[in-house]
Amino acid sequence: MTAAPFRLVAYAFMLLGVLFSLASALGIIRFPDVYTRIHAGTKALTGGAIMVLIGAAIYTPTWQSTAKILLIGVFFIATNPLSSHAIARACYRHGIQPNAVYKDDYAESLSARKKEKTS
Questions:
Q1: Tens digits of per-residue pLDDT, 89-111?
Q2: Minimal CA–CA distance to 81: which of 41, 23, 28, 54?
Q3: Which residues lie closer than 8 Å to 11 by C-beta, 6 or more apart?
Q4: Euclidean distance between CA atoms 27 and 53, whole angstroms
């Protein structure tokens, strides 16, 4: 059984993770365009999931469980930002424009790449 102070620390991490996830959900609902929604879903949700996993790792009594939880965390850290980037790139290439962009560096690099391929 886990000692009481460790339980409290684990519960605090889990509660913080839930709050991060709620902030992510609120951002996904409230933000104006797909890119800022993806940003909210990536940053806050990754942080929230990692906090919950840290709390679960502290709470579990065995090192095998903790090792599995840490592997899940590494997998989540690796895949969530990559998938969000792929979604944002696909949205951009399908013509979905960001809300308030003053300078579009990506469009300039795409046009330069197209010119390079044609010449």
A1: 899 888 888 887 777 777 777 77
A2: 41
A3: 55, 59
A4: 22
Taking the C-alpha atoms of residue 53 and residue 59, their distance in angstroms, rounded to an integer, is 10
How many domains is the chain built from?
1
Place of tokens 């308030």: 100
Cα 57 from chain centre: 20
Domain that holds residue 99: 4-118
* Helix residue ranges, H only, 2-104: 4-30, 34-59, 63-93
Written as six digits, the tokens of 79 are 């895949």
CA distances from 23 to 1, 14, 17, 26, 27 (A): 32, 14, 10, 5, 6
For residue 71, report the phi and psi dihedrals to the nearest 5 degrees.
-65, -40
Q: Tens of pLDDT along 14-23?
A: 999 999 999 9
DSSP 56: H
